[in-house]
From TrEMBL:
PROSITE patterns, per database record: DEAH_ATP_HELICASE (PS00690), HELICASE_ATP_BIND_1 (PS51192), HELICASE_CTER (PS51194)
Bias-annotated ranges (Polar residues): 1-19
Catalytic activity: ATP + H2O = ADP + phosphate + H(+)
Origin: domain of life: Eukaryota
Location of the Helicase ATP-binding domain: 49-249
UniProt protein name: RNA helicase
An example Gene Ontology biological process: mRNA processing
Pfam families (alphabetical): DEAD, HA2_C, Helicase_C, OB_NTP_bind, WHD_HA2
Organism for this UniProt entry: Castilleja foliolosa
Composition-biased stretches (Basic and acidic residues): 23-32
InterPro entries: DEAD-box_helicase_OB_fold (IPR011709), DEAD/DEAH_box_helicase_dom (IPR011545), DNA/RNA_helicase_DEAH_CS (IPR002464), HA2_WH (IPR048333), Helicase-assoc_dom (IPR007502), Helicase_ATP-bd (IPR014001), Helicase_C-like (IPR001650), P-loop_NTPase (IPR027417)
Any one Gene Ontology cellular component term annotated for this protein: nucleolus
E.C. number: 3.6.4.13
Coiled coil (residue ranges): none
Amino acid sequence: MPSMASNNSTHTVKVNQLNGPKADSHARRQKIEQHRKALPIAAVEKKLLEEVSKNDILIIVGETGSGKTTQLPQYLFNGGFCRNGGVIGITQPRRVAAVTVAKRVAEECGATLGQKVGYSIRFEDTTSSSTRIKYMTDGLLLREALLDPYLSKYSVIIVDEAHERTVQTDVLLGLLKTVQKTRSSSASDHAQSENGALLKKQEDVRSTNILKHSRGKKLPPLKLIIMSASLDARIFSEYFGGARAVHVQGRQYPVDILYTRQPETDYVDAALITIFQIHLEEGPGDVLVFLTGQEEIESIERLVQDRLPKLPESKRKLSIIPIFASLPSEKQMKVFLPAPDGFRKIILATNIAETSVTIPGIKYVVDPGMVKVRTYDPSSGIEPLIIVKTSKAQALQRSGRAGREGPGKCYRLYPENEFYKLKDSTMPEIKRCNLSNVILQLKALGVDDIIGFDFIEEPDRMAIIKSMELLFLLGALTDDGKLSDPVGHQMSRLPLDPIYSKALVVANQFSCLEEMLIVVSMLSVESIFYAPREKLEESRTALKSFSSTEGDHLTLLNTYRASDEFLEKSKLVSSNEKAEKNLRKWCKENFINSRSLKHARDIHSQIRRNVEQMGLCITSCGEDMLPLRRCLAASFFLNAALKQPDGTYRALSSGLTVQIHPSSVLFRGKPECIIFDELVRTNQNYIRNISVIDYLWLIELAPQCYALQE
Ligand code: CDP
Ligand code: MG
């Protein structure tokens, strides 16, 4: 008998082991299948495949959430568009979207990420040679074009979220237009003759330099699909010579729009009050709050957490989930997971959640009506990040998020008459940004005539000239506008802002590349330090142990090194996982944003690899930080400022009056001559991330800009 019992129990265990996880995943797969079939786009799968077969360029317009991004690539894969090893590439303006969507689609296909489905974004690549559906940022595809000008591995390229009209999307559209023409002429010409014909064809293609090397190479034609959530497809259709546009009907339930009676003076506070009002007074359903950036999101996250214990026990079931561009990718997926039983999810998002990321379960939207944008003033050359009102189109997209699965409510935190005063749509980024990065990329792609490039909408000529001037002053362009050798070529290979690239390229000469790699990584992420209002003194004391009297760059370097040292020591006595956990705790104690630090570490390892591949020698300046500061002067010289008698500063290249941001370690010190990383315009012109330099260094290291006054 005992043996029977033991048999029985083994049997039970076995059944559990087999059925448990498997049954779970089976149920999940079934649920996913049902979800896929129920998406609005599923009804037109066949029609879409026909349209793609018939048209080399197709524009697909469909409401957010209809299934464009996740489904279309799978339809194309199943429809045979990857035959002969071709890859379907889908570009996104945002990293977060590329990552989350790729993970979702891999799961839908029952594949491991990095096999059939993968993503590739700046500083992170999960694809392999077996990847056939590849999600990536538009900027990344542009970088790929540097190495493979015909994007020859792709059979289909889908430019997603084209309505966002980011600079990278706009440039990509221009590039793809040329690549597609070349590939279709290459395919047909090859059948007729080897040479000659193609050269003639080149004449009607602008920016022909891209085609330089195409002779004699047989390339399969490229299918191009432009996807947009805005209903107006005209601009894309006209740009592609009257290309066909198809609409995918979405599903939208009614959304009640509520406005405030009076304008709000503090929208962050108003958002906080609204979150609790919804939570305490409204029925079940998740809340999506639109904020302008990481700092704002994290401060609201803390404020909500602080207030929770003051609510009655039964009302504390709130699950706060942030989502913004630089959030580490493992955290990004959290928005898609359902909240624990009985909990309400509060998602704090940037405008990422407007169209690029569709989050299920949202019933309430809180829209303060603000968005952070980068602007550019060609006359002064400054490029501040500013917080502005959204456009009507953005407000409508935001409220639409509340009505995806049932009727919803949207709380606009401004009076109704303000809505009618909003601009209809957002101005394309290319018309309001510094173009130096784009120009560097285009030059590297062989496009010499920037003004003649076939942009979907021409950027301001003054902005082009100013940006070329900046590149010239940085030494990236020669007198006749060509990429300089080696500086310009090296700079174009780095996936960074031209000034940062310059800093790395010259750091080699100052023997401080090791330090500069860290500084640039730390500058590339938002807010390493945080100072909660109620713990201002404590956070200041914590910062003191890393701070340098010579400025924020050295402070960032010290912080990075201290964290590195802590992690290494921790790894000696505990597992890697435990050490990472300890590091997060250490960060918290030191008022360091562990998410940002992690991001900086990732960036560091990537750009270190980049400079190694370029053959640069990574040397360190050791204890003496003078070479590092001189190197900063040699690269950030366009952002130099001098102290004025009244304690403000004058930015030398723009002539603007600026002030040191209170978060800077030099806020009280007020040195004579400084360089800064960025200008933030709120009610004042604030400069951030500052280092002390000597004015004479500018004359010595940037004689093209500075001379001794007589
Ligand atoms: O691109 P579009 O806005 O048309 O839709 P999509 O991004 O393809 O999303 C289709 C559906 O997939 C939505 O219902 C999303 O909620 C869901 N989805 C998801 O559950 N998890 C993801 N990581 C991405 C999408
Ligand atoms: Mg989409």
